[in-house]
UniProtKB/TrEMBL annotation:
GO molecular function per UniProt: heme binding; lactoperoxidase activity; metal ion binding
Family: Belongs to the peroxidase family. Ascorbate peroxidase subfamily.
A Pfam match: peroxidase
Record-marked site positions (Transition state stabilizer): 64
Residues annotated to bind substrate: 151
Swiss-Prot/TrEMBL keywords: Calcium, Disulfide bond, Glycoprotein, Heme, Hydrogen peroxide, Iron, Metal-binding, Oxidoreductase, Peroxidase, Secreted, Signal
Name by which UniProt lists this protein: Peroxidase
Function: Removal of H(2)O(2), oxidation of toxic reductants, biosynthesis and degradation of lignin, suberization, auxin catabolism, response to environmental stresses such as wounding, pathogen attack and oxidative stress. These functions might be dependent on each isozyme/isoform in each plant tissue.
Main subcellular localisation: secreted
C-alpha cells in the first residue's frame, strides 16, 4: 500500500516536473485552473491517491482509460458517458472496460462540483499526473462501435505505427506509451492465440521466450475454467519502472503487439534504449503523455455536471 502511494507520488512528480508544457495556440494550459479553481489539482490528487490505497489497481485502470478515451474521438471524456436506451456508449464497446474504476473520476468530479461548480471538465478530472494540460471540453458523443478503432494486442508494428500516426503520434510515442503496460494485467484471451496453434509452422509464437511460453500455457490452458485467469504485463506490475522493456528484450512481452516492438528495426532500438536507461523512459513517457493528452481536443464541447451523462 505504501509502495503504491509512493508510486503515485513518483509518477505525479516526474510528470509535473519533467514535462515542458508545449503550449500551442490551443486553449490548453497547465495552470488553467490556477485562477478558476485553485484546489482542483489537489482534490483530484487526493481522490486518486486515496482510491489507490483501497484498490491498488486504480492507477492502471485510470491510465488505460485515458488511453482509450483519447484514441476514440480525442481526449473528451466520451469514454465516461453511460449508454442510453437509444445509444450503446464506448464504455460498453468490445474491449469493454466498464467494470473499471469509473467511480474514482465520478468521485473527484462530485468533490470538484462542490468546490467549483461548472468549472472543471470531466476530461480534465481524469488524473493530475499525466493530464497536465487543462481546459479541455467534454464531448457529447460516445459510440460503442468506434472502439474497434483501438489497436489490438495482435497488431503488428506496421499497424501500430499507423494507428498512432492517425492521431499525430510518432513511433517514439508508440514505444514510450506502450510502457503504460508496466502497470497492469491482462486476461488470457488477449494473448492465448500466441500459445496454441499459432501458425501452420509454429505451435507457439516463435518470438516468445520458451520458458515464459510454458508458464503462460500453465496459466492459460484450453479449456480454462478460470475466466479471470491471465498474466501481469511486467514482473513488477505495481511499480512504474522500465521492467516492461527489459522483459521485451528477453522475449517476455505478453502481447504480440508488445513483443512486435522488438521484432521491428524501427522500434527495436527505442525499446533497447528504454530498457537500458530508466530515466530516459520516464522523460519520454511524460512527453508522450502530454502529446496523447492533446489528441483531438475539442473546442465546441461542454463542461459536464456529471461525467456519465451529457448536460
Ligand atoms: C500500443 C497499443 C496497445 C494495445 C494493443 C493495448 C492492449 C491492451 C490489452 C489487450 C490489455 C489487457 C486487457 C485485458 O485483457 O484485461 C491492456 C491493458 C492495459 N493497457 Fe494497453 N494497449 C496498448 C497501449 C496502451 C497505452 C498507450 C497505455 C497507456 C499509456 C496502455 C495502458 C494499459 C494498462 C495500464 C493496462 C492494464 C489495465 C489493468 O490492469 O486493469 N495501453 N492493453
Ligand atoms: C477513500 O476511499 C474510500 C474507498 O473508495 C472511501 O470509502 C472513502 O470515503 C475515501 N476517503 C476520502 C477522504 O476520500
Ligand atoms: C461488456 O459489455 C457487455 C455488453 O456489450 C456487457 O453485457 C458485459 O457485462 C460487459 N462485461 C464487463 C466485464 O463489463
Ligand atoms: C459498426 O459500424 C460499421 C460502419 O458503420 C458497420 O459496418 C458495422 O456493422 C457496425 N458494427 C456493429 C457491431 O454495430
Ligand atoms: C500487418 O498486419 C496487417 C493487418 O493485419 C497486414 O495487412 C499486414 O500485411 C501486416 N504487415 C506485416 C509486415 O506483417
Ligand atoms: C489445434 O489445431 C488442431 C488441428 O486444427 C486441433 O485439432 C486442435 O484442437 C487445436 N488445438 C487447440 C489447443 O486449439
Amino acid at each position: 500500500m505504501v509502495k503504491m502511494s509512493l508510486m503515485i507520488s513518483a509518477v505525479a512528480a516526474f510528470i509535473l516536473l519533467l514535462t515542458m508544457v508545449p503550449l500551442s495556440e490551443a486553449a490548453l494550459s497547465a495552470n488553467y485552473y490556477d485562477q478558476m479553481c485553485p484546489q482542483a489539482e489537489n482534490i483530484i490528487y487526493q481522490t486518486v491517491c486515496n482510491a489507490s490505497i483501497y484498490d491498488p489497481k486504480v492507477p492502471a485502470r485510470l491510465l488505460r482509460m485515458f488511453f482509450h478515451d483519447c484514441f476514440i474521438r480525442g481526449c473528451d471524456a466520451s469514454l465516461l458517458l453511460d449508454s442510453t436506451p437509444e445509444n450503446k456508449a464506448e464504455k460498453d464497446g468490445p474491449p469493454n472496460i466498464s467494470v473499471r474504476s469509473f467511480y474514482v473520476i465520478d468521485d473527484a468530479k462530485t468533490k470538484l462540483e462542490k468546490a467549483c461548480p461548472n468549472t472543471v471538465s470531466c476530461a480534465d478530472s481524469q488524473g493530475p499526473w499525466w493530464n497536465v494540460l487543462k481546459g479541455r471540453k467534454d464531448g457529447r458523443v460516445s459510440i460503442a462501435n468506434e472502439t474497434r478503432n483501438l489497436p489490438s494486442p495482435f497488431s503488428n508494428t506496421t499497424t501500430l505505427i499507423q494507428s498512432f500516426a492517425k492521431r499525430g503520434l510518432s513511433i517514439k510515442d508508440l514505444v514510450a506509451l506502450s510502457g503504460g503496460h508496466t502497470l497492469g494485467f491482462s486476461h488470457c484471451s488477449s494473448f492465448s492465440a500466441r500459445l496454441h496453434n499459432f501458425s501452420a509452422e509454429h505451435f507457439s509464437d516463435p518470438s516468445i521466450n520458451s520458458e515464459f511460453a510454458i508458464n503462460l500455457k500453465k496459466k492459460c490452458p484450453i479449456p480454462n475454467k478460470d475466466h479471470n485467469a491471465g498474466e501481469f504485463l511486467d514482473s513488477t506490475s505495481s511499480t512504474f519502472d522500465n521492467d516492461y522493456y527489459k522483459r521485451i528484450v528477453m522475449g517476455k512481452g505478453v502481447f504480440g503487439s508488445d513483443q512486435a516492438l522488438f521484432e521491428d528495426y524501427r522500434t527495436r532500438w527505442i525499446v533497447d534504449s528504454f530498457a537500458k536507461d530508466e530515466k530516459l523512459f520516464f522523460r519520454e513517457f511524460a512527453a508522450s503523455m502530454v502529446k496523447l493528452g492533446n489528441v483531438g481536443v475539442i473546442e465546441d464541447g461542454e463542461i459536464r455536471v456529471k461525467c456519465s451523462i451529457v448536460n
